[in-house]
Automatic annotation (TrEMBL):
GO biological process entries: transmembrane transport
PROSITE patterns documented for this protein: ABC_TM1
Domain of life the protein comes from: Bacteria
A Pfam family matched in the record: BPD_transp_1
Compartment list: Cell membrane
Signal peptide start-end: none
ABC transmembrane type-1 domain residues: 69-283
Annotated protein name in UniProt: Sugar ABC transporter permease
Membrane topology: Multi-pass membrane protein
Length: 296
């Protein structure tokens, strides 16, 4: 092996060593320790802990407040899932020769770059029952009878919070879809047009198959984001009233730092990681199965 090849190999190994060490130190080892703690009764302060094996897992499955929190996560999941086709359609529109497309791209992405806590505080005032801007808008439109306790009614609070989440993250998905659409080969699209393909056929048989990796990523991001949502419910409602707007992550953090039960909190963290993977695999199989069935 010549000197240049050796130097290149050493450079590659050194370049890979740093991220691998960081990955092992900050992801792999903490994940292993998290799994170990899920079998203990550690309170977060004691220098020692006892192994209680599967007791935390049994307690987790019999906790009604945790199940309610998980059902609240489902509202975010389905709200964002139903919004994905709209986001994709908007990205297709922006990818066309739309007048003022650059302005629209900037505006849809703007909410994502704003701090999540700031957004949550702003919408807390927007939906406030005392001089809230939303109720004032309804009054101005002669629709005051529609006013509700937007952040304290258990029946609607999660839908209000999911709306805030949609406002913040939908633009991010639009930009991702737009980037993927712009990477589709122009030659293939021009050839399809010459062959007589209409707009729908172009979208269905050219653009969608070409951006499936991005679709998969956004679907995964939807699962991860919906099951790990924290800042919006924490700032706007603190999980209330009661546990009506609590989420799985919010309840896990409360279990650890309020109830000082780090063992049970670790169990919940392990469970959410497993749940994300399981839902993604099932969702992926369903979606790809539907696509393959339509292609036949």
């Amino acid at each position: 092996m010549n000197t240049l090849a050796k130097q290149r190999r050493i450079f590659i190994l050194v370049s890979l060593a740093v991220p691998v060490l960081l990955l092992v130190g900050f992801v792999v080892f903490p994940a292993i320790d998290l799994f170990r703690m899920s079998f203990t009764d550690w309170d977060g302060l004691s220098p020692t802990s006892s192994f209680i094996w599967f007791e935390n897992y049994i307690d987790m499955f019999h906790n009604p407040d945790l199940w309610q929190s998980l059902s609240n996560n489902a509202v975010y999941f389905f709200a964002h899932l139903l919004m994905i086709p709209v986001e994709l359609a908007f990205a297709v529109l922006l990818n066309s020769k739309l007048r003022g497309a650059k302005f629209y791209k900037t505006m849809v992405f703007m909410p994502y770059i704003i701090n999540g806590v700031a957004i949550s505080y702003a919408f807390s005032y927007f939906f406030s029952p005392i001089n809230g801007a939303f109720d004032s808008i309804l009054e101005a439109l002669k629709l005051g009878m529609l006013s509700q306790s937007w952040l304290s009614d258990p029946k609607i609070v999660n839908f209000v919070l999911a709306f805030v989440s949609l406002w913040r993250y939908s633009g991010y998905h639009v930009v991702l879809f737009l980037a993927a659409l712009q990477s589709v080969s122009k030659d293939i699209q021009e050839a399809a047009i010459i062959d007589g393909a209409n707009t729908w056929q172009m979208f269905r048989h050219i653009q969608i198959p070409s951006i499936m990796l991005m679709v998969d990523f956004i679907l995964f991001d939807n699962i991860r984001g919906a099951l790990q949502v924290f800042d919006i419910p924490f700032v706007m409602t603190s999980g209330g009233p009661g546990y009506a707007s609590s989420t799985f992550t919010l309840y896990t953090i409360k279990t650890a730092f309020t109830f000082s039960d780090f063992g049970l909190a670790s169990t919940m963290a392990v469970a959410i990681m497993v749940l994300i993977v399981v839902i993604y695999v099932v969702q992926n199989k369903i979606i790809h199965g539907v696509i393959l069935k339509e292609d036949k």
